[in-house]
Amino acid sequence: xxxxxxxxxxxxxxxxxxxxxxxxxxxxxxxxxxxxxxxxxxxxxxxxxxxxxxxxxxxxxxxxxxxxxxxxxxxxxxxxxxxxxxxxxxxxxxxxxxxxxxxxxxxxxxxxxxxxxxxxxxxxxxxxxxxxxxxxxxxxxxxxxxxxxxxxxxxxxxxxxxxxxxxxxxxx
Length: 172
What we know:
By secondary structure, the chain is mainly beta. The chain has one domain: Ubiquitin-like (UB roll). It is 15% helix and 44% strand. It is built from three helices and ten strands, in the order E-E-H-E-E-E-E-E-H-E-H-E-E. The radius of gyration is 17 Å and the shape is globular. The two termini are 23 Å apart.
């Protein structure tokens, strides 16, 4: 079993633009997660597609493994948990809200928020005057455990960047 992160999109009744969301699913391969992604999608089922996807092998200096069986959110090394954090902000030169999605490891939500915000300073972006704030925070330990699995987080010996694929892939 593997944990995958997906950036999905599609149309939704009443929306003027295509909507997107970040979703997580467990499977042996990305294709094995498509049925779960269809269940999670709230918009027009015929419009659902994946724009980006990647296996979450590592996050914030920790190796991430999915194991079968029940577990507790505090079952990770040192009581650490894996959080998905969506940061939002504005640039006065852009007519939109900017977003950054990060995975952080922390013992609780408050520290996860602080850790995510600290990562903003190191980003290279053309929008240097953007102001960021945490918009959404999800503890992935609980989401995985709800699927009959548990996360194992261990300090990584070698840090690796998140590898992902971008491309339009209809899955409706």
